[in-house]
Amino acid sequence: MRQHKSFAWLSKLLIVALLLSSIEFALPTPVAFALSGVYHNPYGQDDLYSTEPTERSPRDPQAGQTVYIKITTWPIEWGQAVWLTWTKNGVPQSDVGAQWKYNSGNNSYWEAAFGPFQKGDDITYTVHANVNGCCERTTGPFSFTVTDWSTVTNVTGHTNNTNYVRFTFGDSGGNFTPAMRLAFVSDQVFRVQFSPTGQGLNITGLNNYTVSEDATYITVTTSALQLKVQKNPYRLFVYKADGQTLIAKEYDPSVFRIFEWLTNGDTAVAKIGTHFYTPTTEKFWGLGERYNLLNQRGKDVNIYTVDQYLDHGERTYLPVPFFINSANYGVYLNTTYYSVFNIATYLSDMYGFTQNTSGSLSSTLDYYFIYGSTPNEIIQRYTDVTGKPKLPPKWAFGPWMMANEWDKQSEAQTQIDNTDTYDIPATVLAIEAWSDEATFYIWNDAQYTPQPGSYCFTYNDFTFPVGGKWPNPRQLVQNAHDKGIKVLLWQAPVEKWMSSPYTQKDNDESYMLQQGYAVGDGSGGSYRIPGGRWFANSLVPDFTNSAATDWWTNCKRGYLFNMNGVSIDGFKTDGGEYIYGRNLTFANGKKGDEMRNAYPGSYIGAFHDFVQTKTISNGILLSRAGAAGAQAYPGYWSGDERSTFSAFQDSIRAGLSAGMSGVPFWGWDLAGFSGDIPTKELYLRSAAMAAFTPIMEYHSETSGDPNPSRARSPWNMEARLSDSQARTGFAKFANIHMNLVPYSYSEAKQTSLTGVPMMRAMPLEFPTDATAVNQVFQYLYGSQLLVAPVETQGATTKSIYLPRGEWVDLWNGGQHSGPMTVTYGVSNLETIPVFVRGGAILPLNLDANYTLGGYVGNTVDNYTRLTFVMYPFGSSSFPWFDDPINTVKTI
Predict the structure, then answer these.
(1) How many CB atoms within 10 Å of residue 813?
(2) Cβ(72)–Cβ(109) under 8 Å?
(3) Which DSSP symbol is given to 439?
(4) Catalytic residue positions?
(5) pTM for the model
(6) DSSP states along 474-494
(7) Which of 92, 396, 491, 763 has its CA 20 to 30 A from that of 376?
(8) Is 730 within 8 Å of 399 (Cβ atoms)?
(9) d(Cα 867, Cα 799) in Å, to the nearest integer?
């Protein structure tokens, strides 16, 4: 028996008892009580950003690391002991005792340390516990195999196969035969696929290159690029076609590994990566929607989608494994596995990218190297690879309104009516709290006969009581449409767990389980979202299963597009960051580790296709999570943010970095989502910027019937602040947003053709201007307008940098010749500096007085005064999209 392992724990109790002796507690005689259980979960929730108190650390041990096994027992009792029995490479080892760490609730927590180990060691362990030598409990066995890094050495051979070149290498570990394929997608874009074992290589490309060889290099050349593959040691150099102008090169292999892989030595490959040289002057932009910085140099950037509530920092809902480098190239890492870009963090002159794999010996590192003479060219070529942005319907470019507290038809109707009462345009009403909060497809308070889970409801299956929250949804949607307002309904990809019965939801859940429509847990059951997460214990639909997708969308939600002839216009597709666990299973054969970043795309893509089918391509989604290629399913908003100027600044960075990552149709909850209403200053500064974004929308978090209301609507802001400027100032910018629709939609059309975003960070448009590229809080909206939001609380002036060229103040016609810095007075809260590029032609929808900011209603089908405002400078033209005849006309 192993009572001796409990002495440290018992001594702590004795000390505590002595300290409390003044209360005259008597130390009881230890007796043997039944130990109820012991628990250890090696991977925890497999979350990058949090650990569980009962997991292994590290989860996947590498050579030389000490391994900590964390354990809990319950209930808290005298005389407990916890220990490990284990084997190394099949040979039993001496038991390892666990040390007591702390108590919490009714549990004791323990930690056992063992190791370090060598590459290839196979470790199996079982956790044991007893109390005073009695009633032993065990859990396990658990196992892991220790890994370490290997790398390529020299090139051992190459073969030109017409549409790709294959290279073979030596292996520093001596166990594998590494190989690489190099293929060209175009003259400016090549693709590299590397395999540590030579297996799994399958890419091909064009036959637009030539291959030559000398004693030192194998050279592959197109009309735009020359690649020199150094033979010994292996190293890749990328030049312009002249062979002299260096664009990029892999790092010095004598200093740090290139083409490295993490392996147990013979049966598994866990990670693959490589490293490049980066002069300290280079900048790195993109990598998804990033709130912290535009230039990510000096950061380890995780490609990992996460539900981060507020204060995003370095975390994001929408990571994209693609960056633009200031040296005129970009890299797209073609994987949905977790990856990390180490940008001048290991070494100040090196960056690298490393991805997880399935562990298979056929795992590969697959990336695209994209050359462009400008960042905009790089984005165009990146979206050639991942897909061009889908053009949203024109009505999406008007103001949107939503608030979580609008949870009844009377309230929603009031908001619709208020747009007329106050002459403040809106083209979209997104209703979040519309459903029963159980099925998420049945209107709250609707009366109906519960049906089997296979049943597809029609609108006429429901009756809507006069006293209910939504007495006539069809009429509400029709009323909105009559006012020129489209309607979106909120969604989340969960079959919600509830502690009490809810018949229809329970029937759906039973059917979902029976049909295998849920994501699998990896052990033959169905996955449920882990505890402590949003919608904990809920099932998650598997949208890689076509039958599940059809049931979830068309069967269960199809009736919303035919409410006796009236149709909604899309969904707010919230969430999607729910995949925790590497071994979860999906119908497409992929596991949770590969699907974590891919799941939002499968979810949002399913809803996108559903909506486009039902609306004849005139619907839209508003989504939060995504990954590479998200631009195919517009639009996106930046998620949950505070009502602070700091969060406002984060939002600006998020929108600009999303655009640099190929995701252009973006907005944010202007003035913030969380907490009580914002200040008038923040509200009007945010509204001013939102007028010059693709999606102008407000939203608020508080649900139910808060008193007073926390909605960010302009009429509620006026009431809460007792200040009419909150309303009139917002109205001005909402009208400007509508005035801009002809311009915005024409620019959006170009974005859909090129991938170049509507909100263009300064490095995109002015990459050779060293001052411009460092301006974070100004951007181009489309090709013609330079916008400088006032992002600092209490600001009375704003410094704006105007690059080379002629610039005209949009508001007063003042002319400036750049490069220069302008100090702009912004004491008036309704001021936002905006400059028009010299030579611009702006198509606008103006009122009868041709006033920018004048009310023109919210229709997008006809313009009040379609006006082309010209700013003469040299020769000018503008690609105006005449959408009724689907033609781009050069003005």
Answers:
(1) 9
(2) yes
(3) S
(4) 574, 577, 640
(5) 0.95
(6) HHHHHHHHHTT-EEEEEE-S-
(7) 396
(8) no
(9) 31
